[in-house]
Write a structure and sequence with these properties.
With about 325 residues, the chain is an alpha+beta fold. The protein has six helices and 22 strands. About 25% of the residues lie in helices and about 35% in strands.
Length: about 325
């Protein structure tokens, strides 16, 4: 099932692109919702994200200064409205907002954008085979489209199943996450037409590593390589995006995958993991940010698309 984005997002007709750069980030904002959590006062049920953490989060978003922000673990609509309003009060206006209301009623994929959205659709009916039955992709897939000088760019925002599970036959939900990724892949491939020409980015919290099945499924199908993982690191060269506080473990689970025609447009050929002030207080994840540059002639674009497609196959 798919539903158009609806309640406080402004949908616009196709527009002429206004800038030669587009900066995008994916950011798990860690339970921007009332939920059971540990606090300085101990364990609390149905407790909101602290004001200290919210303030730190807004400071990080201000430092990121992106055009489009794709978020995970956002609460229901009032929580996104609150963040949008509080950012605007601090001079950060993101007038276009979309929230995907999927099977998970507590934690959602959401987008804040400075750029008008040509299209915004929430896809909530994706299913896959699991333990002899069918399971829904827990948080669905959020599709948004923005105009660029190269043509419409589609962003596919996702948040795959966490490693928490009560299934003894599927430790850390590895099979379930792989099933979600395969369902998402098949759906996206049906939507984009020829992958060699499509302009798209798949990004979000994959809850899995670079060498995992979900990353493999979302970059290739058989011998066809339709997307490539952007390399990413912080200013010190560290590559972790998630800190599991309970075990004091660090891993990279937040990723950006770009289609071959876009590879040439990625500034410096890589993404950056933000490691500035307030990032630890804001969330247990660090945002991943990248910039697309569109200052190319059509001839250069065609040449670079061919080169990018070749490199994506050779280097994957």
């Amino acid at each position: 099932m798919k539903r158009a984005a609806w309640w406080f997002v402004a949908l616009w007709p196709a527009i002429s692109p206004a800038a030669d750069e587009l900066t995008i980030a994916t950011y798990n904002v860690e339970n921007y919702v009332s939920t059971n959590r540990m606090t300085a006062m101990g364990y609390r049920k149905d407790y909101p994200k602290s004001e200290t953490s919210k303030q730190a989060l807004r400071a990080v978003i201000q430092r990121l200064d992106v055009d489009v922000l794709v978020m995970q673990e956002m609460g229901p609509p009032p929580y996104l409205e609150e963040l949008q309003r509080d950012l605007a009060a601090q001079g950060m206006d993101y007038p276009h907002a979309v929230l995907l209301q999927g099977p998970d009623t507590d934690r959602h994929v959401a987008v804040l954008s400075r750029r008008p959205l040509v299209r915004a659709v929430q896809h909530t009916g994706l299913v896959f085979k699991y333990h002899g039955g069918y399971e829904a992709v827990k948080r669905g897939v959020l599709e948004v489209e923005v105009a660029t000088p190269l043509g419409p760019l589609t962003l596919w925002g996702l948040h795959l199943k966490s490693r928490y599970t009560d299934e003894d036959t599927d430790p850390e939900s590895a099979k379930r996450r792989a099933g979600e990724a395969m369902a998402v892949r098949e759906f996206i491939l049906k939507q984009i037409g020829d992958p060699a020409e499509a302009l798209f980015v798949i990004l979000g919290d994959f809850n899995d590593s670079k060498a995992s099945a979900p990353l493999r499924y979302l970059t290739r199908k058989g011998k066809m390589h339709f997307a490539k993982l952007l390399p990413a690191a912080d200013a010190s060269g560290d590559r972790w995006t998630y800190h599991y506080r309970k075990e004091d473990a660090y891993s990279r689970v937040d990723h950006v995958l770009v289609s071959a025609p876009l590879w040439h447009a990625v500034k410096d050929g890589r993404a950056t993991i933000f490691d500035g002030d307030d990032v630890r207080a804001a969330s247990d994840h660090r945002p991943v940010v990248f910039t697309l540059e569109f200052g190319y002639t059509q001839t250069q674009t065609a040449t670079n698309q061919t080169t990018a497609a070749t490199n994506a196959t050779a280097n994957d």
